[in-house]
Amino acid sequence: MADAIRLPLELFYEREARHPNKRYMVQPLGGGRLLELSWGDVGEQARRAASWLRSRELPQGSRIAIVSKNCAHWIIADLAIWMAGHVSVPLYPNLTADSMRQVLEHSEAALAFIGKLDDWQAMAPGLPEGLPTVSLPLHPQGSFDYSWDDLQRCAPIQDDPKPAANQLATIIYTSGTTGTPKGVMHNFSNFGFAASNAIKLFGVGEDDRLISYLPLCHVAERMFVELASIYAGQTIFFAESLDTFLDDLKRARPTVMFGVPRIWTKFQMGVYGKMPAHKLDRLLRLPIIGRIVGRKVLAGLGLDAIRYALSGAAPVPEALLNWYRRLGMEIQEVYGMTENCGYSHVCRPGRFKQGWIGQNNPGVEVRIAEDGEVQVRSGATMQGYYKDPVKTAEALTDDGFLRTGDKGEQDAEGNLRLTGRIKEIFKTSKGKYVAPAPIENRIGEHSRIEQVCVVGDGLPQPIALCVLSEVGRQEAANDGRAELENSLKALVAQVNDRLDQHERLQGLVLVREVWAVENGFLTPTLKIKRAVIEGTYGERFAEWQQRSEVVLWHD
After folding, report:
1. Do the domain assignments include residue 240?
2. Which of 67, 99, 403, 456 would bridge 462 by S-S if both were Cys, CB 3.0 to 4.6 A apart?
3. Three state DSSP letters for 470-512
C-alpha cells in the first residue's frame, strides 16, 4: 500500500515544533528595513489570527479572500484560514474593481484580508457592501474594519487542527474562454500529493532558499513557494518591488527559482544593457574565460547559487535556454495548469530534448486523445469548478482525466511536446490567461473595423490584428489617416480601461489583407481561422511588440 499523503498543516506543525527559532521568512519593509520571522513566529501569528477567526463563529468551510501582493503575511493569513477550518480565496492584486467584485460575490466570501497593493483606490469600489475587511501589516491607505494587530491581541489556539484530506483548502479563480473567471477547487490532498512528490523529485531541503515575487494567488507560486517551503523547510525571501527586485534577488541568492519566460528574458536584457550582446557572446565562447565570465554574470544577477531553475506558464525560446546554458545555468521547463496544481511535467536534469517539455511527473498518467488533446490524471487533479458542474464536466472526463485544451504528442521516452491549442484561450509570457473573444467584441464595435483577431500567446501583452472596413480603407488612403489613427488610439484606451492589466492591448496592427473564405482566413461560416492568422503574421509579432506603437500600419 502507498504511503499516506502528508497534509500541509500537519507538516507545518512538525516544523514549528522542531525548529521554532529557525528563520523562515524575510520581508522587506521599505527603506532598507527587514522583518525576519522564525517558524515559531509564523506559527504564533497564524494561531492568534485563527483564534480571532474562530471567535467570529462563521460556518465551517466559509470562503475567506486574500487580496494582496506577495508578503509574509499572505502566507500567515492562509495558514490561519486553514487552522480555523475555512477555505482561502486568493485574488490577483491588480484586478479591476468589477473583476474583484465578481470573484468575491461568486465565492460568497465572508471576509477579506487586504494587504500590500499598488492601487487599492481603484479596486476598493469592488468590495461588496458589508463585507468585513482585515488589513495585513503591509496595507494601502484606506478604511478597514479590523487590523492585523486586532487579531494578534487574541490568545493563540492551543490545538493543532488537522483538516481531512478531502476537505476543501482553496478556490483559485482563473479566466475561462468566456472571460468569466472559474473557481478551481483544490482540497488538502491535492496540495499534499503535488507538494510531497515535487519535493522528492527535486531533492530540496532546509538549506534551500526561495524568492517570492510572482503572484502567490497563481498556482505556480503557491506550489513552488508556499507549499514547497512547508514540505521542504526552505527559507522564503520576499521581493519588495520591481524597482528593488535585483537587490532583493542578490539578498536572497536563491538556490531554487521558478520564473516565467518574460522574467528570464528581462534578466538577459538587463545584462545586455551593461555589456553589448556581441561582446558577451565572444567572451562566453572562450573556454576558461567563458566560464569565469558566465559565473560573474550570474553573480551580478544574484543567480550564482541556483541549483534548480525552472520556467513555466509559456514556452521558452530555445535561444534563451541556450544562452543561460552558456552562462552555466540549466533552466528546466515545467508544464502544468491551475487545474492540476501545476503538477504535470518537468524536464529532468540531463534529459533535455530540444523542442520538448520533458517527462511526466511521478504519479501523473498521460494520454493523447483522438483529437490530439493532452489529457492528464493524478492526485493533484482539481475537485472541479466551484458552483459550475457544467464546466467541470467539460474539463474532466468520466474516468477522471483533465482535458488540458493543449494538443501534443509523446515520444517513446515519455517526453511531451505541445503542438497547438484546442481552445482559443491563450497564455501571455507572464503566464496569465487571456480570453480573446470579449476583447475582440469590444474592438469590433468601432465603425471602421471590420475584422479583428486578438493574439498574444507567449507575448508580454496581447495585440489586436485588425482589418479596416471599406470606408476605413478609403479614409486611410485619402486625407483621413491621422484622424482615423487618433480615433483608434482612443478606442484602445477605452477598451483597456475595462480590462485587467494582463489582458490590456499593447496596440492595434492594421493588416493589409482582407480576410475572406477565398484566401483561407475564414471558415465557410465566416469564423476567423486563428491558426492561419497566427501562421501568416506570427513572425512579425515580436517586432510589432517592440515597436510599442498604439496603432501600427502593416507595411
Report:
1. no
2. 456
3. HHHHHHHHCCCHHHHHHHHHHHHHHHHHCCCHHHCCCEEEECC
- pLDDT tens, residue by residue, 245-293: 889 999 999 999 998 877 887 788 788 878 887 899 899 999 899 999 9
**287-332 per-position pLDDT tens digit:** 899 999 999 999 999 999 999 999 987 677 777 888 999 999 999 8
What mean pLDDT is reported for the chain? 91
Domain assignment present for residue 526? The answer is yes
For 56-98, write each residue's pLDDT tens digit. Answer: 999 999 999 999 999 999 999 999 999 999 999 999 898 889 8
One domain for residues 505 and 473:
yes
Residue 311 lies in domain: 260-423
Give a yes or no: residue 247 inside a domain.
no
> How far are the Cα atoms of 30, 249, 297, 300, 304 from residue 243, in angstroms, in the given order?
11, 11, 20, 16, 21
Residue 187 belongs to what H/E stretch? strand 181-187
Do 191 and 300 lie in a common domain? no
User: Is residue 25 located within the same domain as residue 162?
Assistant: yes
Cell of 340: 492540476
Whether residues 391 and 455 fall in one domain:
no
Q: For the residues of 228-296, what is the DSSP string, one character each?
A: HHHHH--EEEE---STTHHHHHHHH--SEEEE-HHHHHHHHHHHHHHS-HHHHHHHHTSHHHHHHHHHH
Does pTM top 0.85 for this prediction? no
Of the three residues 423, 450, 469, the one that is the final residue of a domain is 423
Identify whether the C-beta of residue 372 lies closer than 8 Å to the C-beta of residue 408: yes
Of 364, 388, 423, the last residue of a domain is 423
DSSP-derived secondary structure for 44-73: HHHHHHHHHHHHTTPPTT-EEEEE-SS-HH
Same domain, 150 and 56: yes
Q: 216 and 290 in one domain?
A: no
Q: Is 211 among the domain residues?
A: yes
Q: How many domains does the chain have?
A: 3
For 337-367, the DSSP string reads -GGGTT-SEEPPTT---TT--EEEPTT-EEE
